[in-house]
Design brief:
This protein has about 375 residues and is mainly alpha-helical. It has helices spanning about 40-55, 80-90, 95, 110-120, 130-170, 185-190, 195-210, 215-220, 225-235, 240-255, 260-275, 275-290, 315-330, 340-350, 370-375; strands spanning about 295-300, 305-310. It is built from 15 helices and two strands.
């Protein structure tokens, strides 16, 4: 055995043979690391106190050491400038302007570093200015958008795998109903505890964002838009060709961050209609054929709702106008209540086999709308 390879003292404390030196336990240590016997705690403390007096170091505030710490690997934070990160966590970090809108946290990509900063800020929001609290709020939104992006990435992968499984089972002539991957929306719905239709929509959204709407996909991953804005861009453009969808993607993703949901929905619909009116019309007709239904459900208040979904526009407008006319006739006939309440009465009567104007004790109103409504 060579001198370099001798392992040193054995488990019982025996020494190496004469002429062979014991292993140097400090070999390979970084330069500047003293041996244990050379460590001078008093000198280190004196140097630390000198640094405090000279302003080169500071005693951490009590709030900075409260709560759990966060450990972030360099790999997770590889795109963050280390000097900039040190400034964030230093004397002018979370206690200063890190979440002000013109500082780094406002532009940092959503990831482990921003998450750690936001978590720590949330534990002491009372120390932040209004501007910084707003910055922390937007940071949390970007993190939520990133989380949605990660979930949809996994959904897209799930969808691809089930498609491969289904095609393989089909090629092997496995009977229908027994093929692997044949009902991925039902499977995903059970996993995510949602309906089969909602699961299918999420699968289609994830697939189209990756393949047909790359700018919207990138904006969601960067936290510039949330998942609902991505859905508002995707839904009216799903009927368009790949080229038209790409054009709409380029236009809408630039507008989306600054628009309310209703504004973005109108813009996306108008653009899809302009790019390909026939395709948009076919998409509407297909949705009406596949998804038209009457839905009853529970409101958050504990009450309920009843609605018709995917109705033809002319049918919905005609039904609304009929209910409005009945509500006006009821008010003119002396029935008390606001027009909103009378519309609800008319709606309930019509859907339960009663005629709303039978509520009037007197003769039928001479109003044209009332007569037309009663005759209808």
């Amino acid at each position: 055995m060579s001198e370099a390879s001798f392992p040193g003292p054995g488990p019982d404390g025996e020494q190496p043979p004469p002429g062979i030196p014991a292993r140097d336990e400090t070999a390979g240590m970084p330069a500047g690391v003293p041996a244990e016997d050379d460590w001078d705690g008093d000198a280190e403390m004196a140097a630390y106190i000198a640094d405090l007096d000279a302003g080169r170091a500071r005693i951490p505030e009590e709030w900075e050491i409260e709560g759990p710490a966060a450990t972030i690997s360099l790999g997770d934070a590889a795109d963050v400038d280390l000097t900039e990160l040190a400034a964030m966590l230093g004397p002018d970090g979370l206690g200063g302007e890190v979440f002000a809108r013109d500082r780094s946290a406002g532009a940092m990509r959503p990831g482990p570093v921003l998450s750690a900063l936001t978590e720590q800020a949330a534990g002491g929001l009372g120390r932040l200015t209004d501007n910084q609290v707003t910055g922390a709020m937007f940071a949390a939104r970007r993190l939520a958008a990133r989380a949605a992006y990660l979930e949809l990435t996994a959904v897209a992968e799930f969808t691809r795998r089930r498609e491969v499984q289904y095609e393989d089972a089909k090629a092997r002539k496995v009977p229908r109903g027994c093929r692997e991957g044949e009902f991925p929306d039902a499977e995903l719905g059970m996993e995510l505890v949602t309906s089969q239709n909602a699961a299918r929509d999420t699968m289609d959204l994830a697939t189209d964002l990756e393949t047909r709407l790359p700018r919207t996909w990138a904006a969601l991953g960067a936290g510039l838009i949330d998942e609902y804005r991505a859905r508002l861009i995707w839904r009216p453009t799903r009927c368009l060709s790949d080229a038209d969808a790409a054009y709409a993607d380029e236009i809408l993703v630039g507008l989306a961050p600054g628009l309310r949901y209703d504004q973005l929905a109108r813009k996306a619909t108008a653009l899809a209609m302009k790019l390909d009116p026939e395709a948009f019309k076919r998409g509407k007709e297909q949705a009406r054929q596949d998804r038209q239904r009457v839905v009853a459900g529970r409101e958050e208040s504990g009450n309920a709702f009843l609605s018709g979904r995917e109705l033809a526009i002319e049918d919905a407008l005609a039904s609304k106008a009929h209910i409005d006319a009945l509500a006006v006739a009821l008010r003119k006939g002396g029935l008390p209540g606001t027009l909103q309440r009378l519309r609800v009465l008319a709606f309930n009567d019509l859907t339960q086999g009663r005629h709303p104007l039978d509520r009037l004790a007197g003769p039928e109103p001479a109003d044209d709308a009332g007569r037309d409504a009663h005759q209808a």
